[in-house]
Specification:
alpha/beta, 8-stranded mixed beta barrel, 9 helices, about 230 residues, 9 strands, globular
Length: about 230
């Protein structure tokens, strides 16, 4: 019902440039508004959407509404895609058509979940290549959480790596996490890939993230997801 009634909406979470401490982009996060106007997390409804075969419609609604929100400003924005989205011919065509028709195509980043195993790299490479023709960028989301290996980065031709929150959240007290993130950042810099720290939840973590030379930060210390994009 939420899909049919267009009650799938994006919430926006700011991402800051660590050098200037200014908001330069937003991540568009799916939320469901139930009939009592309660906002539901994707953790609750995405598995159901996949089970009842309406997941692609959820993705389309988020893409449509996110592009509309950023059409007439200069901010960058990112949208999450699953490997399942990219493997779908219908979704591939939908996204490419959207990029062809939008003024915001050169400001969008598609975040691909690193934790999902990829069976067919040719399809992924085709999507990335075509999306970049229209100025779109690619981020590997949750890097360090699942099937991580550094050869993955060279295959994906990513513009950004989003370092998984499980590595960032305790970086001030967990030496191992610090060393792993340090290694990821050093490797990314050599490849010319920008890094984004997820789950920055305190000033101490923020200081460590800057110390490591990570380019951008996102998390509750900076901004909580909101229905508006005008917060600074």
């Amino acid at each position: 019902n939420a899909v049919e009634d267009s009650r799938i909406i994006p919430y926006y979470q700011a991402i800051i440039d660590n050098q200037s401490s200014t908001v330069t982009k937003y991540e568009c996060l799916a939320r469901l508004v139930d009939r009592n106007q309660k906002i539901l997390s994707p953790v609750l409804f995405i598995p159901v959407a996949k089970k009842i075969k309406v997941y692609s419609q959820v993705t389309k609604l988020i893409i449509e509404k996110s592009f509309l929100a950023f059409e007439d400003n200069t901010l960058e924005f990112s949208i999450n895609l699953s490997i399942e989205d990219i493997m779908s011919g219908e979704m591939y065509n939908f996204i490419i058509d959207k990029l062809k028709d939008s003024n915001a195509s050169n400001r969008v980043t598609f975040e691909l979940l690193e934790s999902e195993a990829i069976q067919d790299f040719k399809k992924v490479e085709r999507f990335i290549s075509e999306a970049k023709r229209y100025g779109a960028k690619i981020a590997i989301d949750d890097f360090g959480s699942g099937y991580s290996n550094f050869s993955y980065l060279t295959k994906m031709n990513a513009d950004y790596i989003k370092i998984d929150g499980s590595l960032i959240k305790d970086i001030d007290v967990d030496k191992t996490s610090y060393i792993v993130v340090e290694t990821i950042v050093a490797f990314a810099k050599k490849l010319g890939i920008k890094t984004i720290a997820e789950y920055v939840h305190s000033s101490v973590v923020m200081d460590k993230v800057k110390e490591l030379g990570i380019d951008f930060s996102q998390g509750f210390y900076i901004d909580e997801p909101s229905i508006s994009i005008d917060k600074k």
